[in-house]
Amino acid sequence: MLLKSKAKNKKLGDLGENFAVKFLKKKKYKIIERNFWKPWGELDIVAVAPDKSLVVVEVKTMREYSGDGLKPEDHLTGAKLKKLQRTASLYAGHRQDLARDEIGWRIDLVAIVMDDNN
Predict the structure, then answer these.
(1) Any idea what the Cα angle at residue 83 is, between residues 107 and 29, rounded to 5°?
(2) Does position 97 have pLDDT exceeding 90, yes or no?
(3) Separation of alpha carbons 34 and 47, rounded Å
(4) Is 63 helix (H, G, I), strand (E, B) or coil?
């Protein structure tokens, strides 16, 4: 049962990331990588913004608002944010061609709520 739930959440997460990529491309972001993974953390989307800054995009997706009143952005806890910051900082340090000092880099959050029709 747990495996089925995990697979369902992965599918929802992948769908949310696909929507986020479409949204970012419409906003003229250039997608560099998706699902960059290292043992210490994962980055959902790495992109370059129209102003040429490096942007690490965390995507949080959920179906409708849950009964507990939480929104997708509420699932980015302090511990998760700290891990995300560390992973993004290490990524930026290794990609100084994208994270130039004069422009810098940042972390953005895309929060998506899906209805039954996606």
Answers:
(1) 25
(2) no
(3) 9
(4) strand
The string of pLDDT tens digits covering residues 33-63 is 999 999 989 999 999 999 999 999 999 999 8
Evaluate whether 72 touches 112 at the Cβ level (below 8 Å).
yes
Rounded to whole angstroms, the maximal C-alpha distance in the chain is 50
Q: What angle is formed at CA 7 by the lines to CA 91 and CA 83, rounded to 5 degrees? A: 25
Is the entire prediction scored with pTM above 0.85? yes
Nearest to 90 by CA among 17, 37, 35, 27: 37
Neighbouring CB atoms inside 10 A of 104's CB total 12
Contact 107, 84 (CB under 8 A): yes
